[in-house]
Structure formats: C-alpha cells, structure tokens
Amino acid sequence: MSLAERLVRAWQDGNRTDPVLLTGDDRELEGRDEADLTPAAVLVAVTDRARPGVLLTQRTDTLRHHAGQIAFPGGRLDPGEDAVAAALREAEEEIALPPSQVQVIGAVDRYRTVTGYTVTPVLAAVPADLPFVASEAEVASVFEVPLDFLLDPANQIAASAEWRGRTRHYYEIRWQDRRIWGATAAMIVNLSRRLAW
Q: Which residues are in the Nudix hydrolase domain (predicted)?
C-alpha cells in the first residue's frame, strides 16, 4: 500500500465521532464571524519512507511576525485561490517543493488563530529526500520530524503562559533541539485526533 493510500485510510478510519478539536482562544475570537478572518492554508507534507516524516520549517529571525518559530509551509490565500492551491504555491515559494511532486490527500480541519486567520491544513504525500531550497527571506531551515512522533499524545505537552494580561493555553512538541508550539502544534494535535495512524 502506498503512503498516499495509507494516509487516505488513516483519515477515513480516524475519529469521526465528535473529537475535541483545538482552535485559537475562543474569548479572543468571540463575536468574530468566519468571514472576518483571513483565509490561509498550510501544507502538511508527509514524506514517503519506511518511517514517514512531516516537513516543517524554521522561520527566519528577521521576520516581523512569528520570527524563529516552527511552521508548516504556508500562508494566506491569494484572490481566486482555494486552500490546496495556496498551500502548494506557498510550499514552492518557501522551500522549492515542486507541486508536481505533491500528492494531495485533502484539506483537514481548519484552525482559527487568535491573530485573525482561519488556516486550512492540506494533507499530502511527497517523495523522500527531495532537495529543498529555503527562501532566504522567510525560512531559516527545512527539517523533518517522524509522523508517528508528532501524532503520539505522549509528545504533545500542554503548557500555558501569560500574554497580554491573560493566561494562554497551548501545546508544544519538543523534537531534538526544536520547540514546535502554538498554531502549528495545535494543528498537529488536531490531526492526531483525526488520523488512525
């Protein structure tokens, strides 16, 4: 069975009975209509190898927002784009991932951020060991984390911190010397609650 077929089966066999999915702080988003949020998409690219991995990027320290953070390749939708087109375009711009090498499985549960975005993760399979070229303006590095490690609830640590006078709750996942947290970790947690991997 191919990786794409395994991912489709894992999605089909996953939890469909009211899983508890994460979204941004509902108090921050209260009263905001979905139409008020900026649509965005990210590519959850799973590498086709014996132990599949997920491609992630570390953002450059020079960015105005989320500098140095770990993220999926992605960004806001351009006019006329759907989530799949945006995720593929952004992955090509950020890490030089050719769209022709991406086998899209489909869009998964959207995540609303406290910063006013509604983000659609697009699950996909990609060949292992493609040569990536990080966009110097946005991406400091591209790396891979084993899918089973990310989806394991034992590695998804609930944490909290004070920010702008409020206690914020979030998840973080530690991989080697990297800290995956915030919206990226939340989307991984949501995926782990949906995929029967």
A: 37-166
